[in-house]
Amino acid sequence: QVQLVESGGGSVQSGGSLTLSCAASGATHSSLCMGWFRQAPGKEREGVACAHRRGDIAYADSTKGRFTISQDYDKNTLYLRMNNLEPQDAAIYYCAAEVRPYGATWFGFDPFRSADFGYWGQGTQVTVSS
Fold first, then answer.
1. Is 88 helix (H, G, I), strand (E, B) or coil?
2. For the segment 22-32, what is each residue's pLDDT rounded down to a tens digit?
3. Pairing relation of β-strands 46-52 and 31-39?
4. How far, in whole angstroms, is CA 87 from its chain's centroid?
5. Are 92 and 125 in contact (CB under 8 A)?
6. Degrees, nearest 5: CA angle 126-129-130
7. Mind listing the pLDDT tens digit for each residue in 40-86?
8. How far is residue 38 from each of residues 12, 110, 124, measured CA to CA in Å?
9. Which of 34, 3, 36 is nearest to 20 (CA)?
10. Cα-flanking dihedrals φ and ψ of residue 103, to 5°?
11. Contacts of 46 (CB under 8 A, 6+ apart)
């Protein structure tokens, strides 16, 4: 069973920065893809960035150039550094993980489709004031 625990949310002014963390446990002997999603009130959950343990990284167009996803494999922790935050970035941010056995295919996997992820954290609030 994979457990994900996010931290690092908070309130910043427009143009500010935050770093989110997601500590993962229970998936040390598997192929793993971890990502960040966000959901603002009244909107659908959207993918922000995703990192596969094999090294593939993808960003949503809305965050490319401002957000950086990274992983510390020793600590099993995923990070999201968010720079130049804008009011439209305000949302609850969720860490997500998809775990598959080593050698399993990732064909058809969409890193920005929430239904493709099997594990979720509880979410952390990010507020951006103008």
1. helix
2. 999 886 667 78
3. antiparallel
4. 19
5. yes
6. 145
7. 999 999 999 999 878 889 999 999 999 999 998 888 899 999 999 99
8. 17, 16, 9
9. 36
10. 90, -10
11. 37, 38, 39, 60, 112
